[in-house]
């Protein structure tokens, strides 16, 4: 069976990155490593956190249609390498994309069967504290991120699921439950069930 494309998105500071790290530790997902033109932050490793590219390198990849989606976020480009993610899905892996809202909406157009999960902060005050506590933003970029977060919350209605990230463990459990439920959806499994000539349904669905 094909894997799921799970898109985890939401405003900056909602905790998408922390949730994705925790999910990766708990389960066998394939997490896409995005390309970006922004500079690495302290401790970030090329090829692990991001593929750090120059603007020229990024534009070349756009020209050869190398991205599933890309977006300009706070003055830098971010994009999801296409072929590796699609290959992983074809091979049965569940693929996680942690991307911004513009990117998520583009993926929804080209891949509507994806699972679109919006991560919300418990409150706007908490969101502000999280952005400040990261310590990686200048006062201007902090204000920009906070203002966009306010607007971005409105996009929740375009998603399939909303998960409030109050405690990371709880948010991770909710996402794992969503994934289990998605794997059981009739529109995803009906062909397998109907093709199961020998009646070995369990193996068809779960192996
Ligand atoms: P940061 O600079 O804090 O790592 O990321 C800034 C924003 O870019 C975050 O909202 C993050 O989810 C988003 N982002 C990271 N990778 C991608 C990507 O491949 N595509 C898009 N559209 N957004 C991304």
From TrEMBL:
| Source organism | Clostridium thailandense
Stated family: Belongs to the guanylate kinase family.
Q: What is the lineage of its organism?
A: Bacteria, Bacillati, Bacillota, Clostridia, Eubacteriales
Q: What is this protein called?
A: Guanylate kinase
> Which keywords describe this protein according to UniProt?
ATP-binding, Cytoplasm, Kinase, Nucleotide-binding, Transferase
Question: One cellular component GO annotation, for this chain's record?
Answer: cytosol
Q: Which NCBIfam families match?
A: guanyl_kin (TIGR03263)
Fetch the PROSITE patterns from UniProt.
Answer: GUANYLATE_KINASE_1, GUANYLATE_KINASE_2
A Gene Ontology molecular function term of the record:
GMP kinase activity
Q: Which reaction does it catalyse?
A: GMP + ATP = GDP + ADP
Gene encoding this chain? gmk
Task: Describe its function.
Answer: Essential for recycling GMP and indirectly, cGMP.
Q: Outline the extent of the Guanylate kinase-like domain.
A: 3-180
Instruction: Kindly indicate whether the keyword Kinase belongs to this entry.
Output: yes
């Amino acid at each position: 069976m094909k894997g799921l494309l799970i898109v985890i998105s939401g405003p900056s500071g909602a905790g998408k990155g922390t949730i994705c790290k925790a999910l990766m530790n708990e389960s066998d997902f394939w997490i896409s490593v995005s390309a970006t033109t922004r500079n690495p932050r302290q401790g970030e490793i090329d090829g692990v956190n991001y593929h750090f590219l120059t603007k020229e390198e990024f534009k070349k990849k756009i020209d050869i249609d190398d991205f599933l989606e890309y977006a300009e976020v706070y003055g830098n480009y971010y994009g999801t390498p296409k072929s590796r993610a699609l290959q992983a899905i074809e091979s049965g892996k569940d693929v996680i994309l942690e991307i911004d809202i513009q990117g998520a909406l583009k993926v929804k157009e080209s891949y509507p069967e994806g699972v679109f999960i919006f991560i919300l902060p418990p409150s706007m005050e908490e969101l502000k504290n999280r952005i400040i506590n990261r310590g990686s933003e200048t006062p201007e970029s902090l204000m920009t991120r906070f203002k966009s977060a306010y607007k971005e919350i409105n996009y929740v209605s375009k998603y399939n699921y909303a998960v409030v990230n109050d405690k990371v463990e709880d948010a991770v459990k909710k996402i794992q439950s969503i994934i289990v439920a998605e794997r059981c959806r009739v529109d995803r499994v009906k062909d397998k069930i109907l093709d199961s000539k020998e009646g070995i349904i369990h193996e068809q669905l779960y192996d």
